[in-house]
Amino acid sequence: MAKGFLAAVLPFLDGSTAFSVGPAVQVQQVATSVAASAANQERKPQISVETSGTAVAASSLAVGLVAGVACSALAKGGAGRRTRHNSQRAAVALRANPIATCETSMGTFKIELYLDQMPITVSNFIDLAKSGFYNGVHFHRVIPNFMCQFGCPNAKDPFNPRAGTGGPSDGEYPMADGSGKMVPRRNGGNIPDEFTAKLPNEPGTLSMANTGRPDSGGSQFFINVANNSFLNWFDTSTPSKHPVFGKIIDGYPLMEKISKVRTRQDCPVEPVQMISITVDGA
Prior knowledge:
- By secondary structure, this protein is α+β, with helices and mostly antiparallel strands.
- It contains five helices and 15 strands.
- The protein has an eight-stranded antiparallel beta sheet, with helices on one face. A three-stranded mixed beta sheet has the order 1-3-2.
């Protein structure tokens, strides 16, 4: 079956990290102070702080910091160890997401990869990019006011009639979140669907291509140049389910330009090549 996406629709696709309050402290004065601080924060409007694609609730952060200071000052033994563990987890949650730099024959753009919210899908992309899988591949399908699709190994030949049907080899790849876990690629290099974070297919977002069947995504992805909410995996208006796993943070006008090149059957007449993809921060 062809690996081009939207097979079922076109012949023609919040997570937030809140800091916990921390371990209970058996000191009445501290407990009272923490409770008072939490009550004060609850009366204030929550302010979201964008940190590498993760919305961090500022009120929860404030309460967590108050509790953390109190615990480190007064708690002993197991409570102290739990506090240090919570601090370590907080540091991991605030770690910057990786950035992919995509150099094409028409220019360069950069993408923030949402490793914090989409670790399975992003780790697959990072593994392929670092192996050089995408180098020399061409955009094989571009549609203005819709999207640009890329990532089929058959598209190293820009006019290959099988462009859009290929994927990586079967095997496995490492999670890029430091967990040490391995994820399988099966049945033509396909990875597990990751329908978790409700990230919309809006302009500039990077989204997984698939055939419409479960677990059929591999190396192909597309970049939206319109608000394509009907492609969201959590939108029930169509059978299409395409999870977003990144967004252009620099160079988005280039993607709009690529989407408007002259085409023949949606394939650019003058080939647009991905010269290289490099990933920093993973």
